[in-house]
Amino acid sequence: MTFFDHPQEIPVVLLEEFPGNRRLFLKREDLIHPQVSGNKWRKLKYNFKYALDQGYQGVITFGGAFSNHIHATAAAGYYCGVPTVGLIRGELPPSLNPTLRDARNWGMKLQTLSREQYRQKQDIDFLEELHRQYPGYWVIPEGGTNLWALQGCREMVGDLDFHYWCISCGTGGTLAGLAGALSAETHLLGFPALKRGGFLEGEIIKLIDQTLYPACCWQLMLDYHFGGYAKISEELLDFIRDFKKRYRIQLDPVYTGKMLWGVFDLLNKSFFPKNVDILAVHSGGLQGIKGIREKYGKNVI
Predict the structure, then answer these.
(1) Where residue 9 falls among pLDDT bands split at 50, 70, 90?
(2) pTM above 0.90, yes or no
(3) Domain for residue 180, yes or no?
(4) Are 159 and 124 in a shared domain?
(5) Mean confidence (pLDDT) of the chain
(6) How far is CA 48 from the centre of its chain?
(7) Is pLDDT of 292 > 90?
(8) What is the rounded distance in angstroms from the CA atom of residue 66 to the CA atom of residue 118?
(9) How far apart (Å, rounded) are the C-alpha atoms in residues 99 and 64?
(10) Which domain-ending residue is among 90, 120, 144?
(11) Cα separation of 80 and 111, whole Å?
């Protein structure tokens, strides 16, 4: 049995019933693994299986200094016995933050790229030079989003049947994978964690087209980013603390916390029709709590 064999059944819990027989459920993808959780486990599963099956010598990927993807890739490499390299946007701080400390402790080699170099990470010349520098390494894009990742995210659906699915969005890969796995009658709502996240629509359409699967009805909800990626407010932190007190479930402040704040806001505004079951996905990312604490001096827990 390998690290990426299918995990135990993921719990789906009823959070609350709202007026009009609107029921809100939460899929606990965060429970897959303490370090490689949620959509990161799903995205990395087939990337690592492919790298191992094809005899690659290691895995190389990209991310910011607080990246969930960098953290999860380093942990996955440690548990799979696969060397990893993280190309980090910008300069490393004099003292590594919790995300990068964990990554280094799991054996990931950290290498910085200037912001100008980082913008070239998809260019052919850049990738050819990367392959010369790290021959025999499988390259996973930023956020883990590629066709292997979409295949893993599709498996999140299983035999679940809900009227609405709600998911937080970074690169849009998780939404693209789900969109091709859900029935045509299902409504899929994506909540970008990025300011001006509307650009993701085009990226998601390209990804869905590559899968050749017909997509369900999906849309992006652009008003719940709280100022942008990794931006927070006291209102958001109060919501996360209250959520934990009411349901005994910890949310992260970068992705799932914002998404669920948006879902509750839409419920209170009667966005959802009557007599529907709504499933929100807890996509993990709890390691980001330490980064928020260090960056802003705010205690989320």
Answers:
(1) confident
(2) yes
(3) yes
(4) no
(5) 92
(6) 17
(7) no
(8) 15
(9) 10
(10) 144
(11) 21
Burial (CB < 10 A; 0-12, 13-18, 19+), residue 281, is buried
Burial 61-76 (b: 16+ CB within 10 A, else e): bbbbbbbbbbbbbbbb
CA distances from 145 to 47, 290, 297 (A): 10, 24, 31
Q: Does some domain include residue 286?
A: yes
Question: Comparing C-alpha atoms, which of 174, 109, 98, 105 is closest to residue 143?
Answer: 174
Residue 287 shares a structural domain with residue 154: yes
Residue 122 scores a pLDDT above 90 = no
Please say which residue of 88, 111, 144 terminates a domain: 144
If pLDDT is split at 50, 70 and 90, which confidence band does 212 have? confident
pLDDT, tens only, 31-48? 999 899 999 999 999 999
**Cα separation, 39 vs 285, whole angstroms:** 9
**Which pair of tokens denotes residue 112?**
């910085």
The span from the CA of 2 to the CA of 160, in Å, is: 26
